[in-house]
Helix-turn-helix domain-containing protein
Amino acid sequence: MSTLTVTPRQEQQARELVERAPRPQLTAADEGATHVVPPELGELLLRILKIVAEGGTVTVASLPSELTTTVAAEQLGVSRPTLMRMIRDGEIPAHKVGSHHRLKLTDVQESRRVRLERQRAAFEDLRRLEAELNLE
């Protein structure tokens, strides 16, 4: 994992770029040649620039395609025993390597996305109920 310190000048440059062109076409220069950054990658870079422009911190980490239960539990924001129950109950697929369970990164990411969607939906339901009851 790598956390880079952003200088005030870099923060200002990011702010100016985001304000000037909220959806710029990004290019990269290499040994005199200029290359257009593909839109999908450009979206990722713009998200990073917006975070920097707002004074936020960006941390870059890499994960292997197969995770241990400890790492998978950290990624899901649950305890390892909770993850083991999820595996046992078939909520998330896993396979064994020897006596240890392993999970595919893509399965963990999908499970995390689904959990976040459920949490957001529950929060929206709560907000709607609160508005209906006039408890603002």
About this structure: The chain has a mean pLDDT of 89. The two ends are 42 Å apart (CA to CA).
